[in-house]
Each structure stands twice: as C-alpha cells, then as structure tokens.
Amino acid sequence: MNDQQFEEMVRKIESEVHAEAREALGDKGFERWRNPKFCGAMADADSSARLTGGCGDTMSMFVKIKDGRIERAQYTTDGCGSSAVAGSFAAELATGRSLDEVLDMSGDEVLRFIGTFPEQEEHCATLAVQTLQEAVNSYLIEQARQGRK
C-alpha cells in the first residue's frame, strides 16, 4: 500500500465514523462531539464532584458559583463520546441557573436539549446531571459548615 492509498483509506474510515456519529447524536450532538465545550478541570472551582456510573464511565463536574447561580460549569470524563456530549450539554444548561434549578435538572432535560441521542447511552445524561448536582450539594454543605463556625 502506498501513501496515497493509505490516506484514501483513512479518509474513508473517518467519513464512515463521522456519518455514524452524526446519525447517533444528531447534528447538534455531532457538532459538540467534534468541538467540545465546557471541557476540562477548573482550577478555581468553588466545588466539584466525581461519580462513576453503572457503565464504568467516570464524570467530574466543576462549578463556579456567584450570587447563588452557576457562573461557570465544566466537566471531564474518562468515558465514551456520549458521556462527553452529555457532560458538555449538562454544563451548558446549568450555566446561569440558580442552585435550586440545577438540583431540579434531569437527564431527560439534557436529552431533550441535545435532541438526538443513542437510546443505549441515555444513562450518560443522567450521570452528567447527578455529578453536577453532587457538586452543588457539596458546595451547599460546605457553605452550611462555614456558617456554623
């Protein structure tokens, strides 16, 4: 196989992977998969949490809170592309919301926001929201502790 044949094979495989991902995630999810947002650990987070789902994926959420609202949220995951997409959209949905509104979020809300998502991967949205809510709960517990001092 020469270099040109190899490059052609790689382009074909990439095209097939992208077509499958777009079909599974829809246009909105596919674009987020290709161009992640809200990804990465947050050094100045007010709170964070890390949970491992039943599928074995681990999600971390980091939140910056100002005046009782999520000013910024970011995620990391060691999981699949669906976990990354769900984490990204959960962080986006949380941004600007009050802590109570975040505690009321659901994985179904994230799935509706994405639009198209593989049914067998829907648990990723639940994991993302639960991790986000755990970060908020940790923040609230710490605030209560500081208030007692």
Structure, explained:
This protein is α+β, with helices and mostly antiparallel strands. The protein has one domain (32-148): Sufe protein. Chain: A. Helices cover 57% and strands 16% of the residues. It is built from five helices and three strands, in the order αβββαααα. A three-stranded antiparallel β-sheet has the order 1-2-3. Helix 2 (81-94) packs across helix 4. The protein is elongated, with a radius of gyration of 18 Å. The model has no long low-confidence stretch (mean pLDDT 94).
Descriptors:
149 residues, alpha+beta, three-stranded antiparallel sheet, 5 helices, 16% strand, elongated
Structure described in brief:
By secondary structure, this protein is α+β, with helices and mostly antiparallel strands. The protein is 57% helix and 16% strand. The chain has 5 helices and 3 strands; from the N terminus they run H-E-E-E-H-H-H-H.
What's the SSE blueprint?
Layout: H1 3-34, E1 47-52, E2 58-66, E3 69-77, H2 81-94, H3 99-103, H4 107-114, H5 123-148
Helix pairs in contact: 1-2, 2-4, 2-5, 4-5
